[in-house]
Write a structure and sequence with these properties.
The chain is an alpha+beta fold. The protein has helices at 12-24, 40-53, 70-84; strands at 58-62, 90-94, 108-112, 115-119. Helix content is 35%, strand content 17%. The strands form 2 sheets. The protein has a two-stranded parallel sheet with strand order 1-2. A two-stranded antiparallel ribbon has the order 3-4. Strand 3 and strand 4 (115-119) form a beta hairpin. The longest helix has 15 residues, at 70-84.
């Protein structure tokens, strides 16, 4: 959740989803470690997983792939597509790099001199 000590009780369903996501990213071994001892890439993936586990109505990802290798970026985008394509979750994805944007994104905007400009896909 959004704090180091969650005020929301973690239920078995959440734990199962977390375990599944850790396995997907080949990170089962980090499940018992504290956040501060993880590498920066592992921390980035944990933050990404934390956002997904919350089951939000609006998922706002601001530069979620900073510092991740291209293979991991593709895994993240595939996962986002699989999780969101048949859901009611709205996704706002912020990136400086067009190649990072998941296929599931259907509207693109560019901030140009302080103005929001809609781009063609």
């Amino acid at each position: 959740f959004d704090t180091y000590s969650p005020n929301k009780k973690v239920v078995d369903k959440d734990l199962g989803f977390i375990d599944l996501l850790l396995t997907y990213f080949d990170m089962e071994h980090v499940g018992s470690r504290t956040f501060n001892v993880l590498s920066s890439g592992q921390q980035q993936i944990i933050i990404f997983i934390r956002a997904l586990v919350q089951s939000p109505e609006l998922l706002l990802l601001d530069e979620p792939y900073q510092g991740l290798d291209w293979v991991t970026v593709k895994k993240c985008n595939y996962l986002l597509t699989m999780l969101l394509e048949n859901s009611d979750v709205a996704l706002i994805f912020v990136s400086h790099f067009a190649q990072e944007i998941p296929e599931i994104v259907d509207e693109y905007y560019l901030i140009d001199q302080g103005k929001l400009v809609k781009m063609e896909k």
